[in-house]
Amino acid sequence: MKKIFSLFIILNIFIFNTNIFAKEDRNIIIAQGSKPKSLDPHTFNEFPTLGITEHIFNTLVTLDDNGIPSPEIAETFEYISPTEILFTIRKDIKFHNGDTLTTDDVIFSLERMLKKPGSRVILKDIKNVSKIKDNKVLITLKEPSAPFLANLTLPIAAIMNQKYTLENHNVSLKPMGTGPYFVSDWGDGDKIVMTSFKDYFKGAPKNTGLTFKIMTENTSRLAALETGEVDIIYAISPIDFEIVEKNPELNLLYKNTTTTELMVLNVEKEELKNKNIRKAIHMSIDKEGILEAIFLNRGSVATSPINPNIFGSSQDLPYLKQDLEGARRILEKEDPVAPLKIWTSENIVRVQIAQIIQANLKDIGIESTIEIVEWGTFLKKTSEGVHDILLTTWILGVSDIDTVVSTLFHSASAGAEGNRSFYKNYDLDKKIDFARSTLDINKRKILYKEIQDIILNENPIIPLVYKIDGIGISKKIKNFNYNKSSMRNYYEEMTKE
């Protein structure tokens, strides 16, 4: 009898443990290349943060696949006048700690966003936010704003819990929202474990949770996908596409993006103040070579900083094809250019772009060095204007051009808010502000064409390539989905076999 009882205990332990493993195996593991600076959604307007916080929090409105703002935390919204929008807030939304979301949380979050440099730039049109009834919030704008609703859909416009945040909880490490997942473990930041929220107001996720692993090396991410250590990786280096395609256990997906690879020139640096020198630098760049050598011609050469998948992007701009002789003739008339520093993050694709640009600059007589900078340091120092040239990717989560031009080119955004070229043109500012307040679509397109013409003439930022994103995904993952308009990923419906 004792032996039978012992066998019963062993069998139960085995069944219990296999159930644990089965449950853990339903956790979906995603590898990304950089650590988030913080999990406070209002602080940093950068993908490594927002790519995670978008699963922890919700916004008042979201974008459907056609790019139309639709209700999310708001049950409905309506324009009372061109400058007044009334939001009716859902009554059934729970925060991860069980608190019910209220209009006070919405008002607190919007007012908090206006105080944070990362989020302030997208909501600066707000004049006042007020409670009308227990479930209604009125946002009053300073003037009509065509992109305002679209800006509210960005992950950086997340709604937070007022009481939790004000009680001095460290929301940068322990965020607490209403989204489909909550953070259960961050540890040292190299692995962020998120558990499915069973009381999510849109319905509990079909999986047990998500784990984001931080792997800075492209080769490490690819190896982890091949061995089954992770289930999904993004931004695969095009040279590795064939490896994924030949693996019978993996799928390679191609995703059109709103992404543009950019070369940002710090116009406050003595060597780069002169727009003629900036033009010569632009003329030296072999964009076709970058597209072919690094992206294997998957994508297209960029003529504007604004990706063609974004409303307002003009693809009728003159294309500055590589012209080394023309660039040299310009430089002959200017003072010699001192050696420049090209800053890039640890992303291998961007390092390879830097190497081509370094060779291009040398061809016109400009010496340069490449500095590979850790992501957190990169963000901090470039916001302070330490760099000469930086390489980056602009990823837009909305389908409206205003967020790009206001963030990258408006004088008010110089520094931490996004304008890391520190370009200041007050005539351009007026055009950007006027275009934002113009509600007629056709008039807006004309204005944004003029804005892009100015940018191309001034060259504070040089557009390089419009990317197609390669995604490696295990065949164990089913129902992979992303929003066709915002390009955001939705993991709630995914399952893992």
Descriptive notes:
The protein is an alpha+beta fold and 497 residues long. It folds into three domains: 27-39 and 169-255 and 469-496, Periplasmic binding protein-like II (D-Maltodextrin-Binding Protein, domain 2); 57-162, Dipeptide-binding Protein, domain 1, CATH 3.90.76; 257-468, Dipeptide-binding Protein, Domain 3 (Dipeptide-binding Protein, domain 3, Roll). The chain contains 16 helices and 21 strands. It has helices at 2-25, 47-53, 103-113, 117-123, 148-152, 162-166, 218-227, 241-246, 275-284, 287-293, 324-332, 348-363, 375-383, 402-409, 426-437, 441-458; strands at 27-32, 61-63, 69-71, 74-81, 84-89, 126-133, 136-141, 181-185, 191-196, 209-214, 232-233, 250-265, 299-301, 340-344, 368-372, 389-394, 461-474, 477-478, 481-482, 489-490, 495-496. Strands 1, 8, 9, 10, 11, 12, 13, 14, 15, 16 and 17 form an eleven-stranded mixed beta sheet that branches. Strands 4-5-7-6 form a four-stranded antiparallel beta sheet, covered by helices on one side. A hairpin with a 2-residue loop joins strand 4 and strand 5. Helix 9 packs antiparallel against helix 11 (324-332) and helix 14 packs antiparallel against helix 15 (426-437). 45% of the residues are buried. Mean pLDDT is 88; it is low at 1-24.
